[in-house]
Amino acid sequence: MILDTSFLHDLMYGDEDAVSKAEELDERGDVALSSMTVYELYYGVGYTGKSETERRKVDSVISSRRILPADTTVMKKAGTIDGELSREGEKVGQADVVIGATALLQDKPVLTRNLDDFERIPGLDLESY
Questions:
Q1: Inter-CA distances, 23 with 39, 62, 92, 97, Å
Q2: Which of 5, 16, 36, 107 sits 20 to 30 Å CA-CA off 76?
Q3: What is the mean pLDDT of the chain?
Q4: Which contiguous run of DSSP H or E holds residue 34?
Q5: pLDDT grade for 81, boundaries at 50, 70 and 90
Q6: What residue ranges define each of the domains in the chain, with the CATH number in brackets?
Q7: The whole model's pTM is what?
Q8: Maximum alpha-carbon separation in the chain
Q9: Contact status, residue 126 vs residue 110, Cβ threshold 8 Å
């Protein structure tokens, strides 16, 4: 399972559904993050102006998770998907495309509440909470 930024954000702020899902995932194991999710979370740290407080929350959430790199293979896949979706008028945010490409290459579903964007990525399995 690849955890999307929306899930981790909800988890950090105590959303009951996210907390319940996290407990379930802890029992199942095999969860990871795209390095793009780390980027998005740290963007939030910079944006909020509450850097130290936000940084601690982010570090706490990501410290026990495996981080999958957005390497050349991921970026090739993401670029191709992004180009195809753009050509078809189905543009998705670039960060979500990178997370989706990571999940496709790992043959894992993405856990997100942001179904609208992710469901446009062909072949991507999704799970929500």
A1: 24, 15, 30, 27
A2: 5
A3: 93
A4: strand 32-34
A5: very high
A6: 2-117 (3.40.50.1010)
A7: 0.92
A8: 42
A9: yes
Q: Shortest CA distance to 103 belongs to which of 84, 126, 119?
A: 126
pLDDT at 111: 98
* Strand order from edge to edge, sheet including 126-127: 66-68, 32-34, 2-3, 110-111, 126-127
CA atoms within 13 A on the CB side of 43: 9
* Residue found under tokens 């959303």: 15
Bridge partners, residue 2, by sequence = 32, 110
Whether residue 126 contacts residue 105, with contact meaning beta carbons closer than 8 Å, is answered with: no
End-to-end CA distance of the chain: 13
Dist. CA 7–CA 41, nearest whole Å: 11
pLDDT at residue number 26 = 85
User: What is d(CA 22, CA 8) in angstroms, rounded to the nearest whole number?
Assistant: 9
Token couple for 82? 């992004």
**Contact indicator for 37, 8 with CB cutoff of 8 Å:** yes
